[in-house]
């Protein structure tokens, strides 16, 4: 069965925490491909510092640096909030039922799952891959403890419906920290690809507003 991994995110900006995790998941689960899917209109958070087109461009620049990752821009094609369940439905329509889908989530995103639109449908469409995230010491909600007990698996065997917890090289990098560094005039170099940092500098992203 073909195996496709999906890492959705705001990617404001994309950084080595995302990219290293993506490569390690692809290798550990022997995926045929892993797609980064930038979110156009994040339903759960404040407006990003960069536009959807700028965040997509940064992901394109990052995957262009090698590593064999792909970009999927379908959420930018939709004129509505970027609900993951609808993204998975559209991927199922495109790829068919015989492909195993693996939706990758960091621990923080997984703990927030019960707030997502139609979250209980997600496992009908894909497997979940949960990654540890250093510096995010969040308590998992009860409802997810039950789900983990019922659906956890060591080895991916199905096209959907399983939860796989993986450990990977822990990288305590967040987009919030990178935006804060840039906003303070400090350098985020070596937390993200050089091509993405050059783009941030050329576009003047994440700098404090000069009107303040
Ligand atoms: P922000 O700080 O703006 O919230 P972020 O760094 O968490 O951003 P997102 O684009 O929100 O980045 O993350 C997309 C996905 O990648 C989420 O599932 C998140 O948990 C995961 N992720 C982000 N950074 C890491 C990291 N350093 N290690 C593991 N997973 C990560």
UniProtKB/TrEMBL annotation:
InterPro entries: Cyt_trans-like, NadD/NMNAT, Rossmann-like_a/b/a_fold. Pathway: Cofactor biosynthesis; NAD(+) biosynthesis; deamido-NAD(+) from nicotinate D-ribonucleotide: step 1/1. It holds the Pfam family CTP_transf_like. Residues 6-180 form the Cytidyltransferase-like domain. Its EC number is 2.7.7.18. The keyword Cytoplasm does not apply. It is an enzyme of class 2 (transferase). Coiled coil: none annotated. Keywords: ATP-binding, NAD, Nucleotide-binding, Nucleotidyltransferase, Pyridine nucleotide biosynthesis, Transferase. Transmembrane segments: none annotated. The keyword Protein transport does not apply. One of its GO terms (molecular function) is ATP binding. GO terms for biological process: NAD+ biosynthetic process. Catalyzes the reversible adenylation of nicotinate mononucleotide (NaMN) to nicotinic acid adenine dinucleotide (NaAD). Belongs to the NadD family. NCBIfam families: cyt_tran_rel, nicotinate (nicotinamide) nucleotide adenylyltransferase, PRK00071.1-1, PRK00071.1-3. PANTHER family: NICOTINATE-NUCLEOTIDE ADENYLYLTRANSFERASE-RELATED, PHOSPHOPANTETHEINE ADENYLYLTRANSFERASE. This is Probable nicotinate-nucleotide adenylyltransferase. It comes from Halopseudomonas oceani. The lineage of its organism: Bacteria, Pseudomonadati, Pseudomonadota, Gammaproteobacteria, Pseudomonadales. The gene is nadD.
């Amino acid at each position: 069965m073909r195996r496709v991994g999906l890492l959705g995110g705001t990617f404001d900006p994309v950084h080595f925490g995302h990219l290293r995790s993506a490569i390690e998941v692809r290798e550990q689960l022997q995926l045929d491909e892993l797609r980064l899917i930038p979110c156009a209109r994040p339903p759960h958070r404040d407006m990003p510092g960069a536009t959807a087109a700028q965040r997509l461009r940064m992901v394109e620049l990052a995957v262009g640096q090698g590593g064999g990752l792909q970009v999927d821009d379908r959420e930018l094609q939709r004129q509505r909030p970027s609900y993951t369940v609808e993204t998975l439905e559209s991927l199922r329509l495109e790829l068919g039922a015989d492909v195993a889908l693996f939706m990758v989530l960091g621990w923080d995103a997984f703990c927030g799952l019960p707030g997502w639109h139609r979250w209980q449908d997600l496992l009908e469409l894909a497997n979940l891959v949960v990654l540890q995230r250093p510096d995010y010491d969040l308590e998992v909600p009860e409802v997810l403890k039950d789900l983990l007990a019922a659906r956890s698996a060591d080895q991916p065997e199905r096209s959907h419906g399983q939860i796989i917890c993986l450990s990977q090289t822990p990288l305590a990098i967040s987009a919030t920290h990178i935006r804060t560094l840039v906003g303070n005039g400090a350098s985020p170099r070596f937390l993200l690809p050089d091509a993405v940092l050059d783009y941030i500098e050329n576009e003047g992203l994440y700098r404090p507003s000069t009107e303040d």
